Queue: 2 jobs
Job 1
Amino acid sequence: MAEGELKMSRRERQRLLAMHEVQSGRSLLKEAAGQMRLSYRQTKRVWRRFRTRGAEGLVHEGRGRVSNRRLPEDIKARALAVYEKNYKGYGPTKAAEKLAQSFMNLRFTQKQETVGCGLPHHADTRTSRRNGAASRTLRSFSQVE
């Protein structure tokens, strides 16, 4: 990303537009609260952050931070070494179970094990209720190619 660029979600961009409307005097905070679907009190907090920090104040503060649940790199490397040495032919679920036994004091998940450590993993092929029909349609098109 270039210097001075700010990555924002759709919701944050909508908030930015609403705050610009308030700043220019074309809208009141009460109207902006309705546009952003926030309470008036929360809108006042957003407005205060916008006035003090600008558009950067509207961006979620957790963006770009490392997760608190992230495994340290040395443990990932050890897990990968143990996998390569002992569990090479295992599938992702069995490998995750075996590695969890090897590293008993840590709580591993299958995704952390396989994706985070570079181990083989299965793609998630489940469909949610929300987008089930759309994802099934996309999957059927991709199988035709």
Job 2
Amino acid sequence: MFQRLTLAKLALLGAGLAGAAGLGAATVPGLVSAAPTATASPSPSSSGEHGDRSGRIGKHLRHRLFHKLVELTAKDTGQSVDQVRAQLKAGKSLADIAGSKAAQVKTDAMNAIKDKLDKAVTRGRITADQETKLLSRARDAIDKLMAQTPHAAAQPAA
């Protein structure tokens, strides 16, 4: 079970990084070759179903997905990545920055993830059921990341 989850996370990572960024398949082998170091044998004493490693991997994936959403927001709104980041620092969410283009940013991200997961299913890396679950989780993660205001806590009270 650990291996299937690792492959599923790898597929999501590839989808979030390579697909959402519009990178070709040439980038994905670099991700795949890095997988064995990131997925060393699980600790038998891990307390949860996925152990402590799952939290670190999940946090890393969310972080990378957020940066890809920043890039997609910039692309779809015609702004530079630096302009989007400046607005994030000012306390806006990606959805606020994207405005009427927010749905398009989400669609672009989901399409990229689905394309990569479809390829993973075709290659036998994950099952169709795993793809469905990953797509649902990705949709939820994208919605949360688009709505959050990452620097709101850092804003001084007026």
